[in-house]
Amino acid sequence: MSDLERARAILLEGGYTCVLCRGETVYTATARGVKPLVDWLDSGLELRGFSAADKVVGRATAFLYVLLGVKEVHSLVMSTPARQALEAGGIPASCDREVSGIINRRGDGPCPFEDAVLGISDPQEALLAIRKKQFQMRQPPEMTKHTAGKNLTLDRTGLSGSTVAIYEDFVLKSEPISGESENHLAMLLWLDGKIPAPRVLETVQRDGFRWTLMTKISGEMACADEYRADPHRLVRVLADAMKSLWSVDVSGCPVDQSPNAKLERARATVEKGQVNMELVDPETFGEKGFPSPAALLSWLETHAPDFEPVLTHGDFCLPNIFLETWKFSGFLDLGRSGVGDKWTDIALLWRTLRDNFGGHYGEAVPGFHPDELFEALEIEKEEERLRYYLLMDELF
Length: 396
Known about the structure:
Elements: H1 3-14, E1 18-22, E2 25-29, H2 35-43, E3 51-57, H3 59-68, E4 72-79, H4 80-88, E5 93-99, H5 112-116, H6 123-138, H7 141-147, E6 153-155, E7 163-166, E8 170-176, H8 179-191, E9 200-206, E10 209-215, E11 220-221, H9 225-228, H10 231-246, E12 256-257, H11 259-271, H12 293-302, E13 309-312, E14 321-324, E15 327-331, E16 338-341, H13 342-357, H14 372-377, H15 383-393
Parallel strand pairs: 3-4, 4-5, 12-16
Antiparallel strand pairs: 1-2, 1-3, 6-7, 7-8, 8-10, 9-10, 11-14, 13-16, 14-15
């Protein structure tokens, strides 16, 4: 039995929506529509060379199979445009029944994802259109009353699993409900009028996600080409933005980001085995570093520094700071903000300057050193505090 025949047999026998086979390796899904294929794309799962069997394949699904790089596709029902898209992508296609198009689940019109990719021939462009349609269809009614019929741009920058839709006049963020998502909301509400940051217009929980409609910060990320071109000037602007946080009265701040509070959350992450070892510095663990995340946590707990409480951002890196014509215009992603040690932000900004202009991301900038930050902040460099908070961040 070939991989394709086996995939089809499993599809029929198991009640799945799609099945992928390659030798002894089998992946199955029960979710309908494009969702399982988008999820596989996002997971980075290597599916090149797999044979796919699917219940229904329309043109949108066909583009996703092209991006996944499968070897061949068979469907119980396949549209003619889907077969053509697969063949254009070099993927042999077959089906039990070929139809002119795929209708929606109500049976009163075309599938919304088929409409979304209408007139598109590039698979990557199709993926973007599919993501937009997914985002629109997932929105709770409290949000669609604001967003219906309006153009959006999706921003999936970052690692939190959140999605941000940027509209002309506002921003809509969807993120899995977590301690960080609820901290983000609490801090935005508390910070209203205190610092330049998005203002909450409406928020709602639905199906495990927090949806927050916010005002839009003007300008661009500090990692935009214009600002990256002059890191000496940029570091001074960023230092001023950081010092503006230190000037805020933290009385009544709802979130504790002190070293001890952060260590409690780090312990939970370590005990659940959730430290992402793929993202840590290569020298943090192993022969030259700590033997394990638990060992690092133990060291951090016994070396927690004294600190002067200030307002901290908690993720002070270039994408989270907005500038407009070289002037600071606002902070984004405040889920880790709260009362803490200013060296939390100093360490993260020092690292992002080192990585962005020292050759880790792109070419190194001659004559620039991240230690310029300390001169701009008008403080002395404290190696031990810097190291402490860089190591702590490895557990988040």
